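Much of our argument rests on the idea that a fold can be written as discrete symbols. The amino acid sequence and the backbone structure tokens for this protein are reproduced below:

___
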Amino acid sequence: MTSRSSLPALAAALLAAGCASGPPFIDVKQPDAMQVATRRGQFEMNCPAATGELLSREMVEPAIRARFGGQDRAEYTIGVAGCGQRTTYLVICAEDGSGCFAAGTRNMIRP
């Protein structure tokens, strides 16, 4: 049986645990975004040694937030370079947990 003196401490601990949150979504999804862009770049450039570099990132709200729709998303610009080539990808990760998508290349440079 729980004593009355421990109830406030238990309530405070539960409240603190309920308020604790993990790292921001944009930080959580960054490794996934890097992997998606790097793998796509390696395939498109036919270069398994290609590596990715984060160029920018931001949280973006939907243009129109409908009553039941519109997800915030993390957008990353990731450069991938290797085998004398480089390109950039816009990677989008939705907060709904549907994963990350690497949008088409912005440019491909072959020296």
User: Anything to note?
Assistant: The CA atoms of residues 89 and 104 lie 6 Å apart. The beta strands are 51-60, 73-82, 85-94, 100-102, 108-109. Residues 14-19 have pLDDT under 50 and may be disordered.
